[in-house]
Amino acid sequence: xxxxxxxxxxxxxxxxxxxxxxxxxxxxxxxxxxxxxxxxxxxxxxxxxxxxxxxxxxxxxxxxxxxxxxxxxxxxxxxxxxxxxxxxxxxxxxxxxxxxxxxxxxxxxxxxxxxxxxxxxxxxxxxxxxxxxx
Length: 134
Hints:
Blueprint: E1 5-9, H1 13-24, E2 27-33, H2 45-48, E3 51-58, E4 61-67, E5 78-81, H3 86-97, E6 101-107, E7 112-119, E8 125-131
Parallel strand pairs: 1-4, 5-8
Antiparallel strand pairs: 2-3, 3-4, 6-7, 7-8
């Protein structure tokens, strides 16, 4: 089984998913708009360019997102990123923190070489969790 986080945005999915691909060292592998969908002709002109689906791949991991159709699309979600080394944890944490707010500084804990939490510039919550061997 694979768990994939799906993020909803209030019209900023394209910018956000590009940002995450760069920050995490991955790439956007899928993206289409409402206008490209079978219901595209039924969409308002303003909504046709909004992202209906986007996918970022980072190694074997996936992150998906879209511009949600409701006014409450930017709901609460936390993404847990689990890098293999403290150096990678520090790089990812620093990249995601740009323009955001750190809620727990990246530091060593009893369970992790590095753990930290932040809210990024798009209002999404992240944890960076570089686990110690059990």
